[in-house]
Amino acid sequence: MPSRRSTLAVVCSIALAFPRSVGAQAMGKTRRIGILANGTNPAFEVLLETMRNEIGRLGYVEGPNVSYDFRHANGRLEHHPELAADLVRSKVDLIVTSGGPASAAASKATASIPIVFAIVADPVAIKLVSSMQRPGGNVTGVTNYDPEQFPRQIALLKEVLPRLSRIAFLSEDGLPGADDSGMIPDERRAFAAARAAGVEPQLVRIKGPKPDIEAALATIARERADALIVLEVPLVFREGKRIAELATTQRLPTLFPSSVSDAGALLFYGTSVFDNFARVPAMIDRIFKGTPAGEVPVEINARRRFVIDARTAQQLGIVVPEAVLARADKVIR
Q1: CA distance 232 to 305
Q2: Contact, 246 vs 204, CB < 8 A?
Q3: CA distance to 77, 187, 273, per residue, from 213 (Å)
Q4: What is the DSSP letter of 62?
């Protein structure tokens, strides 16, 4: 469970993220918004900052007409059901969730309190909603679901590493949506994309809150993977820099989600969860004004970003082709 000090720090940051504004709407009763997340870190603080401007434009004022009740699992995914139930007992008016584990736990905890998720790769696959256009139930949100992401990531790696024949995928234990094979939707899509590209896939999972990254990379090394793709799982936001540093030390080229483009990997490609949070306040506003959550279509964030870290390329002794460099949104030098 979170320490009192860490919880107070986060609550203070949330209060600052939703400042008073002179032109605030008179919303009547004070609405209580519960926020359920995997943990707190600089990346999550940025997400809250992204939400701040949008919620301010809608006129919600922290104190007079909106308050926030925060819960985080401190990196322990198994704590989400307990924390979600606690938010339900506290009778919040709406729950904002960050990530698949938090969203699945909140959905199981209540069928009546509206839920707006912000970081869920495939809400249909993990049964949060019936469909993107008609979610049904009490859940909606913003997804960065992109069926082309893995094929495009692998194609980029093949351009940079022409002899690529084996890719390791780094995922996390305990995520929702596993099928009979034991694989979650992103893992299944990653494997399918690799095989379609003629590349042999390898899956390795780590487990929080203190993942054994060294052991995971040792497993990858034993199988002689030519590159590593890190999935957009909760641990990547807290451990991304360490994963990239250790992989580079072992001379293993890495491709990360674009959400963590400061982690030090070789390549970063895909949609960014940071873009998701900007749309959450508008959904909250619609729900508070009377639209049932199940009638608010799930929004799909389709904006992809491509970043190359030239410093990491130099450390690895990799020459990125000029044609690839020219397509990057950003080259870190």
Answers
A1: 14
A2: no
A3: 18, 18, 23
A4: B
pTM above 0.90, yes or no: no
Strand-strand pairing, 267-271 and 254-256: parallel
Q: How would DSSP label each residue in 291-304?
A: --GGGSPPEE---E
Q: Please answer whether residues 203 and 223 qualify as being in contact, where contact means their C-beta atoms are separated by less than 8 angstroms.
A: no
Closest to 211 measured CA to CA, from 219, 221, 201, 200: 219
Domains and CATH numbers, the chain: 4-144+273-300 (3.40.50.2300), 149-270+304-332 (3.40.50.2300)
Segment 40-46 long-range contacts (CB within 8 Å, at least 24 positions apart): 40/2, 40/6, 40/9, 40/10, 40/72, 41/237, 41/238, 43/237, 43/238, 43/259, 43/260, 44/98, 44/237, 45/13, 46/274
**Inter-residue contact 196 to 64 (CB < 8 Å):** no
Q: Is the dihedral of CA 224, 226, 229, 230 positive or negative?
A: positive
Per-residue confidence of the chain (333 residues) as pLDDT tens digits? 444 444 444 444 444 444 443 334 444 688 999 999 887 666 667 677 677 667 777 988 888 888 888 898 887 889 999 999 999 999 999 999 988 999 999 999 999 999 999 888 889 999 999 999 999 999 999 998 899 999 999 999 999 999 999 999 999 998 988 999 999 999 999 999 999 999 999 999 999 888 999 999 999 999 999 999 999 998 888 899 999 999 999 999 999 999 899 999 999 999 987 788 888 999 999 999 999 999 999 999 989 999 999 999 999 999 999 999 999 999 999
